[in-house]
């Protein structure tokens, strides 16, 4: 922040504070202040303006609010005016300095008499009025009603319910829309926002009149002075903001734009090194930053509720030399541009144990590309110099599983112990298992020859086959597979049903050929099943509790299967073993 | 030869000296074959070398990854009782470094890899 030194030319008592004229060649300023006894602002002293902000009034005049000032040379030592100051007139605009309520006491020294230059300053009344108009308060913000009034800027981290007179200077990192409600007690509306400063962050809510007063004034990304909100214990259920308290705006609260906002951080992030993610619990909410080493194409998948959603995976690496896969969803996934290996920061990403450790950006996460923060510059420097050559070790091993959904690795005993499929919706999981039994009886059925129809046809016993769905008769059919199999791993086994594609993959033959064999060469047909037995695959299964005639049974279906990539699998096992040992 | 029935710990070069006079199983890549055909050196997944002595001359070209079962001499030489070449021309090449990582796991957690119990039972 800026430090300016001034010579104090004059000091005037202007109830309830002081107005002082300062000189800083060639400009002359006026301002009001309350000064501590020790730090007396007396005529001709030299002072340093330590912290201030400039605000532009509606009529174009500028107001400078001084937050911190220090006398570096008391008046006595200076001995008279410095030079020959003249008033500064920026055309019609005149500058004012106003110090908001400070914690300091009123100067006990009486103010010296007026200088003849003072008449060049606008009338007191005008100033007071303009303050009133612009700051929207009954009394000018700058004039403390009591000398001990306290609107010194304090850090967000120090806010608590036991002090009501404070001012914070913070950036708005997000703002909700206006939400309204209507119940037996009446109607209401609210909005909420999150603020961040160098010390921390806090969630703020405004109700009813405060919505009208402040909602349109607040712009995300801008910095404001906020005073006198009410603090209470935070309801952490609704937010991931790290603060024990949250703020509610009330009738006394004020929000003023702050021009000098350079040093207020854009976002409060507590970045976890990617290498440390292994030791965090799954489902933890974390902030991460890294270089986007690679990014996949956007894919679209249908969720279990038959909704289409876009998905994209990217690989993040940081100076720990570790990589992690991050999944983006929806519009964020579609719009993401990973070209040039940008620095990507995510606040509030969800950590999961998919593939070991992986991250997902949920709707409550904030994604930043090349953010203007020191950590980003550090990473960029490291990557350009050394990091680009680092191969890195990914925490998200085993990219197996089907194209849709993130991999959810389970053992077969996990599936039973965790009661997967017992919920309202089906559960999906991936596992590595070995085929231990294949039921060759009734694995083939005669299906409608129409390309898009797989319904079982009825043999009319006259050379024709009828499809009820297509409402047609055909002189032929196509064989399709429904294969019942038992798969097992070290801990448990599972009966699964494999439909056409997965059945053909297990058996290594297509349905048509198998149908032929079954009709013509039993032993060859049997041989296919023999060969297929005891093969190990990566299965992606769907499991759901189904009720049929008062009987509930878990039905497992193979959605996809792949051969095991042993190297990947071994690496993953070693990672998991080492993790268990930690 | 009778000692082949013993439990053979899987080791790499750094574990040789802890297994003196014991039957071991070593996997490594053939490095140099002595002209006499009676001895060769092999490199493990950590890049360390061991000398393997055979009880009879080599009758074939030896190269690639080999699995040797034998006794460790006082001097840390592997006195081979039998060896076995792991073919790499079919499918996936043998990843010696990964094998070494797995080996370390077995040795770091002997309580979970009770090979002795398995053999005796």
Describe the structure.
The complex is a heterodimer of chains A (582) and B (121). With 582 residues, chain A is α+β, with helices and mostly antiparallel strands. Chain A is 16% helix and 38% strand. In chain A, strands 7, 8, 9, 10, 11, 12, 13 and 14 form an eight-stranded mixed β-sheet that branches. In chain A, strand 16 and strand 17 form a beta hairpin. In chain A, helix 8 crosses helix 9 (522-532). Chain B is α/β, with parallel strands linked by helices and 121 residues long. Chain B contains two helices and six strands, in the order ββββββαα. Chain B has helices at 96-108, 115-120, and strands at 9-11, 23-33, 39-43, 49-53, 65-72, 78-86. Chain B has a five-stranded mixed beta barrel with strand order 2-3-4-6-5. In chain B, a hairpin with a 5-residue loop joins strand 2 and strand 3. Chain B is globular. The mean pLDDT of chain B is 87. Chain A binds chain B through residues 566-567, 570-571, 574, 577-578, 581, and chain B through 92, 95, 98, 101-102, 105, 108-109. Chain A: Component of the heterotrimeric canonical replication protein A complex (RPA). Chain A: One of its GO terms (cellular component) is PML body. Chain A: Residues 428-573 form the Replication factor A C-terminal domain. Chain A: One of its GO terms (molecular function) is zinc ion binding.
How many runs of DSSP E, i.e. beta strands of chain B? 6
Q: Describe the largest sheet of chain A.
A: 8 strands, mixed
Radius of gyration of chain A over alpha carbons?
Answer: 36 Å
* Helix count, DSSP H or I runs of 4 or more residues of chain A: 10
Report the helical percentage of chain B. 10-25%
Shape designation of chain B: globular
Low-pLDDT runs of chain B = none
The residue-averaged pLDDT of chain A reads: 75
Category from helices, strands and their pairing of chain B: alpha/beta
Q: What value does the Rg of chain B take, in angstroms?
A: 14 Å
Let me know the average pLDDT of chain B.
87
Distance between the termini of chain A: 46 Å
Largest interface, Cβ cutoff 8 Å:
A-B, 8 and 8 residues
Helix content of chain A: 10-25%
The share of residues in extended strands of chain A comes to 35-45%
Order of helices and strands of chain B: EEEEEEHH
Which oligomeric state applies?
heterodimer
Our estimate of the beta-strand percent of chain B is 25-35%
Number of strands of chain A: 31
pLDDT < 50 stretches of chain A = 12-19, 24-39, 84-150, 398-405
